[in-house]
Write a structure and sequence with these properties.
Oligomer: heterodimer
Largest interface: A-B, 45 and 46 residues
Shape of chain B: elongated
Distance between the termini of chain A: 111 Å
Shape of chain A: elongated
Number of helices of chain A: 20
Number of domains of chain A: 4
Structural class of chain B: mainly alpha
Strand content of chain B: under 5%
Largest sheet of chain A: 5 strands, mixed
Helix content of chain B: over 70%
Strand order of the largest sheet of chain A: 6-8-9-11-10
Number of domains of chain B: 1
Radius of gyration of chain A: 45 Å
Structural class of chain A: alpha+beta
Order of helices and strands of chain B: HHH
Amino acid sequence: MNIAITLSLLNLVISIIIFSMISKIYLLYGRGYLVWFLFGMAFIPIIFIYSIFEFFVSSSYIIIAYPLFVIIMEIAIIVAERNLLLSIREREGEEYKILLREDIAMLRTFERIANYLIRRISTLIGIKNIEKTIEECIDKYAILSGIYINGNEKIITTAVEKNIDEISQDERIKTLIEAFSFFIDALIDLYAAFVPYTKIAEDMRKEIAKIDNKITIKWIMPFVILKTVIEPILRRCKIDELTEIRISVVIEGININKKGGIDIHEIYKYEYKEIIEKLIKFFHRCRYPLIRIFGEEINKEITTNFRLLPDNIKEEIYKLGFIRDLPRGILEEEKLTLMSRDRIIEELAERKRKLEEAYKRLSEAKLDRMKSNFINIIAHELRTPLTVIKTYADLLRYEKLGKLNKMQKDKLNKMIKNIEKLNELINDMLQIPSIDSKELELRRENFYIKDLIKDIVDELKEMAKEKKQKIKLSLNESMTNGDIKLIEKALKNVITNAIKYTYEGGKIEIKAGKEGAFTHVVIKDNGKGIDKNELDKIFEPFYTGEEGGVGLGLAIAKNIIESHGGRIWAESDIGKGTTFHILLKEAREK
Amino acid sequence: MLRFVILLLFIASLILPIVSSYYFNRLMKLIKVRRGNILITGAIMMLIGYIFFMLPWIFIDESVTEIRLLSYIIVLSGLLTLLYGILKIYLDWREVIK
């Protein structure tokens, strides 16, 4: 009992999932027949709910509900299937375009064209003669066997649907188009015996314009071109003229008969690419005999016939782009349009590329700005509380708030030292160009670079000593103009960097001297060097090497040097070391 | 009398799937999306489960727990097959309608 209820519950859950999935499909596509499926499938969960309820009722009548539910469910499904079938069969049906198989859609199209022709021919020659033609076609193409004309003078091709299934899937479309182009051709020949061919071509264009299945359009296109563009011209030719054309145009798969009709069905034995090649070849070969017969004007007529083609066929022609290969004088304007279309496409692709590049640059710039704003805010916001902390720390240090023991004093000094470090870092951050867009305020004065460098080296001597490095100075007299404090900072940053990235026992050379209107400072180390691809990046804020750090030193140095109208750059060889060059404007007067 | 009514309804519910399969076969010959075999398998399994469920009522006028369990299991596999088929159709249709 328990197992049965569990299984029943499990079935109920799965049936609810199925029902909700069909509901989703219905909500997505909103097809009418799905309502019936939905209605039918709703009975499965109902049955399982009922079965759980049935466990607790002892009456034997309760069993009647099961077959009743199943019957209702089956009827709903049958109605849904019938509606879907109608929807696929009818050309106006909502599923015709979406779900109908390509070969069946093609068959329907041929059926419609054939019926259109039969309607017109039957009044002229009677159904019997058409039936004879059909028999001849069936003899040639077995796939057509079983087609017949019913009492309403309509051709019925249901048998072909079965015949198709016996052919391999890849061959179905080709076999169909070959057989039906032969059949339609035969009907056209019958019709042409009574009606001027120009009228037939016009009728064909109207019928072809109704085709909306892409595969059918693709395959019928060569047939339509030959039948409506060239055949109306050939039909006007005399027998000897046609003989001349036939001799000039010998292409396997395309035959011109004695009446000027073009038999094209055999061309469908070839691959699609070959068909198009043959079609173009046909135009080239029949061009000269036609010009000889009708004069240069014939090109205009062919062009006009091309332009009269239905839009769906024209779209296919444009898509394939084969009009470029048509002989000179035919569709010249269209060829130009096609060429300019290609150019436009190229130009658009180029513009798209540029736009993408610009967008990328813009987003990078935006990101940089956001980063700068963020750091700017952080730096300013940190500075205020830090000043307050420093003030109270100083008050404590000078024992304005009470006596401190030795240990407290030691710890307090460490604290103050770190506050100063933090303050320095914040000041550094605010000096990066991208962070503080304002120009640096310079307090310019004249000073000897030699003295300044000596002072810096004195200060950093201990740091170099720790790494057993030697600093060699070669400094000439050169008076520089600028903010001495800022330039000191810049030089200090570069020299510190050199010490930091040079191995223990390494050598650092600092040279300074006049070079035209500039003072040239060279800081050379024999450290591990920087990769050439990285050289541009080292002056970017927050760029750090393997040694770590905040990555602001060189960015600040660059900002300071450039604010003074100077220049800073680096040269490096991996394994040999890095050389920094700094150019600073010389003082105008001593 | 009750058994007769049940038998009649049961026969009717067995004839309708034949009609349904006729339409279904015709549909499958025309349609691009081919998941018919999965749906047919699911439906047949469910029908077999239903037949198993009904047979004791028709022959002995009462339910047999073992057969009932068996029918539930068969229906469960049918439902799972159907679920798989519908899922496939849903995915296929999404491609076709795109």
